[in-house]
Structure formats: C-alpha cells, structure tokens
Recover the amino acids of this structure.
C-alpha cells in the first residue's frame, strides 16, 4: 500500500490576536462586573455589621447568619 502526502499538507495557522478592542473589551467588562459584585457584597456586609452594632447598643437581637 502506498501513501501519498503531496495533497495532504496541513499548514499550521496560529490563532490571530484579537483585533481592535475585542479581547480588551471583554476583560474590562468582566473586571467591572467583579468590582460591582465586590462592592455589593461589601455594602451588604457593612450594613449587616452596622445593624448588629446598633442592635447590641439598643439591646435588640439581630440575626447575622446570612
């Protein structure tokens, strides 16, 4: 059996870099989302801590097991 490789040349084409701002825009969007989520969690935690401190000062029981 003979195998001919003359017509089966496979050329490697490396992936092209993102043009314009395709990749950069995706990274920025994900970064902004992460920052927004972190800010929301921090705000919630601060509110919970404030409620707990206020409750302790006034004698009110506050459930912080969130």
């Amino acid at each position: 059996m003979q195998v001919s490789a003359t017509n089966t040349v496979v050329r490697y084409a490396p992936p092209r870099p993102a043009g314009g701002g395709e990749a950069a825009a995706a990274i920025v969007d994900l970064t902004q989302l992460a920052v927004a989520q972190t800010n929301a969690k921090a705000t919630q935690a601060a509110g919970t801590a404030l409620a707990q401190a206020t409750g302790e000062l006034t004698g009110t029981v506050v459930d912080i097991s969130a």
Summary: The chain is about 55% helix and 0% strand.
